[in-house]
Amino acid sequence: MFSDTRDFIEALHAAGDLHEIEKEVHWDLELGAVSRLACEKDGPALWFKRITDYPAGITAFVNPMATWRRVAVAFGLPPDASLKEIYAEYEKREGQLIAPVTVAGGPCKEMIRRGADIDLYDFPAPMLHDGDGGRYLGTWDMAVCRDPETNWVNWGMYRFMVYDSLHLTGFPRPTSHLGKVFQDHYVAKNRPMPMALVIGADPISHFTASATYHIGGEEAALAGGLRGAPVELVRCETNDLLVPAHSEIIVECDVLPDCAGLEGPYGEYPGYRTGEMGNGIFCRVSAVTHRKNPILTVDATGYRDDSSTITALTGAIAIKRRLERHGIPVMDVNVPREGAVHLAVIAVKYGGKQMSREILETLTSRRALLSKIFLVEPDVDVYDIGKVLHAFSTKCHPAHGIHVVHYEGRANTLTPCYSQGERALQKGATALYDCTWPGEWSREWEVPVQATFDSIFSDSTKEKVLANWKSYGFKD
Ligand SMILES: Cc1cc2nc3c(=O)[nH]c(=O)nc-3n(C[C@H](O)[C@H](O)[C@H](O)COP(=O)(O)O)c2cc1C
Ligand SMILES: [Mn+2]
After folding, report:
1. Quick one: pLDDT at residue 175?
2. Could you tell me the distance, in angstroms and rounded to a whole number, from the CA of residue 259 to the centre of ligand 2?
3. H or E stretch including 460?
4. pLDDT at position 367
5. Which of 158, 208, 367 to mutate to test the pocket of ligand 1 (most atoms within 8 A of CB)?
6. What spacing in Å lies between the alpha carbon of 452 and ligand 1's midpoint?
7. What pLDDT is attached to residue 276?
8. pTM score of the predicted model
9. Could you tell me how far CA 172 lies from the centroid of its own chain?
10. Which residues contact 352 (CB under 8 A, 6 or more apart)?
């Protein structure tokens, strides 16, 4: 298992999933545009070796897990593992928690900068998209914070913009765990919240920071379990938080309870720039520690970015678990890449109005990041989007098969189809498309027979045709 970004880069190189760019590239839009196009082409991860205005040793590693091949490598699976295998592997490992261990020091302490030595512009934070509100230092990152009452430590991946040489502004959504801890325990008591922004830890730690995980659940232990070995943590210089010792860059800060800072807009994961510049959390940096020749990790956020794989995968399994807990006969769940974490395909033993309502209620009761659900029967392979679209197109009744639930105060503020007004109120809706045959239809004589090779022919016809296949002149 990988202890840091550097090991992972090496493994990607060996798997043919890394492209190193020696030519000098500008942090102002050029790096972002190259990286965006690489995502849209399902290309390899990128390692920019020369960045304009920065010394040769300071590099940027982009789109770490934005393809399923790279997710497989990060999990120690063969690079060509199927989507189904990757889902199954995560599902198998996610229940095994291994608590982190604390170590006295580590590579992230090679350089320590405090006070007047702090300058966030020491790092080549890119201006990723035309129209972004600023340069983003935190994209492939993890923000560490602690609930002071229970000592629950949360890791979350949220974007952070360079405000000036000493301050960051960030955009954890109000429904995020950091957002909740900050509001409940620090804003309410008017106390600054210690936070550590970690950049360039091992890939599985970042993966867990972006995972859908329960309140009170520690992503550090989830990461240990997924890696099969504890994550080594080291104490920050200016607060009590612990951070992965092998990280590239740590920004220690205080999030001020009584200040907001301008943040965004940004080219976001659904594939649009939706918002305007708004108020983000305001972070005053207290120390920066980093490795020698630090590697800045970056997600070129937008269509088919890292969220389209990792957030989708953990979101799908979280949906499955939640439905199981509520006694719903769920078989498989896929959150397809093309749906930008807005669409889930759920296979259940049977559908219908009652089942549809129960699923909608269950999945939107706390926070509702997804807004569309395709409900299918178990004979539809949820990982095969062609088959899913076929089921949707043919089986979902346009008048009776669409169920909608409306809510306020917990909608996804980044969903592009919501108006600015809806977003301000966190108001939204989730639609479920029931692509299953009505339960009251007789399976024998009302449910249509599929006109496919497998379904519409007798075994003897199929066997004969398969046995003779090559003799018809087909190669395979
Ligand atoms: C590259 C990337 C960037 C993300 N940026 C944000 C962000 O700016 N704000 C946010 O609320 N969620 C963001 N997310 C999603 C969160 O990481 C995800 O919802 C995670 O569950 C948050 O952790 P939490 O549940 O502990 O709050 C991002 C995910 C990825 C993969
Ligand atoms: Mn969490």
Report:
1. 85
2. 24
3. helix 459-468
4. 85
5. 158
6. 42
7. 80
8. 0.96
9. 13
10. 434, 436, 438, 439
Q: Which residues contact 268 (CB under 8 A, 6 or more apart)?
A: 274, 275, 301, 302, 414
The residue count of the chain comes to: 476
Any ligand 1 atom below 6 A from CB of 415: no
Domains in the chain, start-ordered, CATH in brackets? Answer: 5-302 (2.30.110.10), 309-435 (3.40.1670.10)
Ligand 2 geometric centre to CA of 212 (Å): 7
Q: Which atom of ligand 1 is nearest to the CA of 140?
A: 1
Q: Quick check: CB of 414 below 6 Å from ligand 1?
A: no
413 lines ligand 1 (CB under 6 A): no
Cis peptide before 44 (omega within 30 of 0): no
170 lines ligand 1 (CB under 6 A): no
Buried-state track 129-160, b at ≥16 Cβ within 10 A, e below 16: beebbbbbbbbbbbbbbbbeeeeebbbbbbbb
State the ligand closest to the CA atom of 266.
1
What single-letter amino acid sits at 383?
Y
Distance from the CA of 180 to the center of ligand 1, in angstroms? Answer: 13
pLDDT digits (tens, 9 = 90+) for 204-247: 999 999 999 999 999 999 999 999 999 999 999 999 999 999 99
Q: Nearest to residue 252, comparing CAs of 233, 240, 263, 238?
A: 238
Kindly report, residue by residue over 34-84, the tens digit of the pLDDT. Answer: 999 999 999 999 999 999 999 999 999 999 999 999 999 999 999 999 999
In the predicted model, residues of the chain with pLDDT beneath 70 are none
